[in-house]
Amino acid sequence: MTIANTCVLVAAVLPVVTMGLAKFSTAGKKVREGGYDNRNPRDWAARQEGWKARAAAAQHNGFEALPLFVFAVLAAQQAGLDQGRTDMLAIAFIVARLVYIAIYLANQGALRSLVWGVGLAITIAIFAPTLTLAL
Question: Contact at 8 Å (CB) between 120 and 77?
Fold first, then answer.
């Protein structure tokens, strides 16, 4: 498995870990006291406030960013692009996502949007050479 493929796996797991932080923070609390409700997880997430609500939003965004990243890696590999370049950009994407999550949880909106844009640019850069090959 390539480094980029490993990054795809990490990118797929990051949203789960992000929301897991919010769920774990309520460990030991009963549902009626705000503890995690496994019977109604979406309702529980919708009732969260502060960093836990932002963790839920970051989870959603992680799942939204995932398909384009996966496609970029697969397209680059299918086109036979330099694997080292693809690997390095995939690592950069994961770093950007980790920074994005931290900034999101810290409630830094403008900076979060900037880092999101960096992640999008990295994703486009991964498969951008495949677009020129098609022309």
Answer: no
- Cβ burial of 78 (10 Å; 0-12, 13-18, 19+) is exposed
Measured distance CA(102)–CA(21) in Å, rounded = 12
Q: Are 125 and 89 in contact (CB under 8 A)?
A: yes
Give dist(CA 67, CA 63) in Å, integer: 8
pTM summary value: 0.91
Q: For 2, list phi and psi in degrees, rounded to 5.
A: -80, 165
Per-run averaged pLDDT (10 residues), the chain, 135 residues: 97 96 87 85 90 96 97 94 96 98 97 97 88 56
Which residue's structure tokens are 């991964």? 126
Residue 130 pLDDT: 65
